Automatic annotation (TrEMBL):
Classification of source organism: Bacteria, Bacillati, Actinomycetota, Actinomycetes, Micromonosporales
Keyword tags: Signal
Organism: Actinoplanes regularis
Name of this chain's protein: Peptidase MA superfamily protein
Domain of life: Bacteria
Signal peptide: 1-24
């Protein structure tokens, strides 16, 4: 009987080990978020994990969180943040060529080139919007999601410093609302971000984002909520 129980225990352990290994191989980002230490990341406090013990990382994330607080009047999304100091680390945790990547509403990954306040704010802005929208998230087109994240992060690459934040003519920018995000960013260009940032910044000057979110959650279509 004892031998049989031992054999069952070994079989279960092997199955569980295989399952964990399969998840890590198929979805390294999920595995890394679940166990950052398993991927060589150390805790810096408050859900921030980094490949290198650098206080600058915590300062960047703290500043990004303050921007979210200021824009929305508080935060509803509380993400685990994984920061890599090397490209090898970022690839290992499931990153690609992007500077940062939001995962659902609970976590984000930052690459060596994205481990700063602006990119951290951009990605946290995605998480915050998605958390607040809930089931209505699917109503929001990609261009609006990206444009709002650029606006919240106040990214100088895509926004001007004057009263009109557009860096290109509005008639040219509004084309982003009539095409797919893939087409707008084809070839890895920044054109889609410039367009989206322009349209959303103009829209935001006369609209309340919180009301917009509430309208979507109440059942309105994106076009109806956006036009009000």
């Amino acid at each position: 009987m004892l031998k049989r129980r031992w054999l069952v225990a070994v079989a279960v352990a092997l199955v569980l080990g295989t399952a964990v290994g399969a998840v890590a191989a198929a979805a390294p980002s999920i595995a890394a978020v679940t166990c950052p230490q398993c991927y060589g990341l150390s805790g810096l406090g408050d859900g921030v994990y980094a490949e290198r013990d650098d206080a600058g990382y915590r300062r960047a994330v703290d500043a990004a969180q303050r921007r979210i607080d200021a824009f929305y009047g508080g935060r509803q999304a509380h993400a685990r943040v994984l920061i890599c100091a090397t490209d090898a680390c970022y690839r290992r945790i499931g990153g690609g060529r992007e500077k940062g990547k939001a995962l659902g509403t609970r976590a984000l990954l930052l690459s060596p080139t994205g481990a700063g306040e602006v990119i951290a704010t951009h990605e946290l802005a995605h998480l915050e919007l998605h958390q607040r929208l809930g089931a209505a998230r699917g109503k929001v087109p990609h261009w609006f999601d990206e444009g709002l994240a650029v606006l919240v992060s106040d990214d100088p690459r895509y926004l001007g410093s004057g009263s009109d934040r557009c860096r290109l003519p509005y008639d040219q920018a509004v084309a982003v609302t009539r095409t797919s995000w893939g087409a707008a960013t084809a070839g890895g260009t920044d054109g889609g971000y410039l367009q989206a940032a322009c349209v959303v910044s103009r829209w935001k000057s006369g609209h309340d984002v919180l009301k917009f979110i509430a309208d979507l959650r109440a059942g309105k279509t994106f076009d109806a909520a956006f036009s009000q």
